[in-house]
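Reviewer 2 asked us to include a model.

Predict the structure of this chain.
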Amino acid sequence: MDWMETLVVVVHVVIAVALVGLVLIQQGKGADAGAAFGGGASQTVFGSQGSGSFLTRVTTLLAVVFFVTSFSLAVFAKQRAEVAGEAGIPTVKESRLTPAADAAAESEFEGGESDLPELE
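Predicted model (structure tokens):
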């Protein structure tokens, strides 16, 4: 299963870079040729633009793949956390010390003696 996670991470990073590039290549709706002659009529200078250009469709497809890889990575992380919990490895939520042991450890550091030499 480890090679699958590596493959998903590589695809995720490649898709992220491709998405950034595609978004930067595309021009906004206000950047049409008519925008230079007066802002409001810029969308009607060359007529309406159909359902979307090739770049828009590719960007949409890459965004869907990016979300799928993000979800897959979240599932992998959850599985890894469950395996670690079953093996007895403490996670972020768990603590090795009980609250009484935590209080004893704090009082030892605050007023107790330590093995470290004091700095002058």
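Residues 2-25+53-107 form one domain. Residues 54-86 form the longest helix (33 residues). We have added this to the supplementary material.
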